[in-house]
Model the fold of this input.
Amino acid sequence: MKIALASDHAGYDLKMYVRAHLEAKGYHINDLGVHNKERSDYPVFGNMAAKEVANGNSDLAIIFCGTGIGISIAANKVKGVRCCCCSEPYSARMSRLHNDCNVLAMGGRVVGDELALMIVDEFLATEFEGGRHADRVKLIGELDEY
Ligand code: RB5
Done:
């Protein structure tokens, strides 16, 4: 599985922590930056990671800013992307089961390192349930046209 990672400066440290964890597990990582802690703009990086998923270059993306909020808003502007901002594993699990989320956002100033790994592992281990949820996800997709 190929996973895109991206962050701004405020999410950089957590991105690097998650990246080491995923590489140790054997995931193919495409780190789109930032590559240092110089001030940067989260919409640019949220958009880059979301496009990677939308165009099929990556299966999923995990993105980071200070809160996870700004970068998730930016990612959700890209057609076909369903990004959730999570601070605990339950929501990460449900975002896959019911919403078929393909991008996970977290806040580097919100979530501790070990909690972040639990959130990531839950997100990656869970498959979309389909069924009645597929109809609702399809309805979300139709909103891309407005
Ligand atoms: C940067 O200071 C901060 O605003 C950004 O990382 C993010 O939290 C925005 O939503």
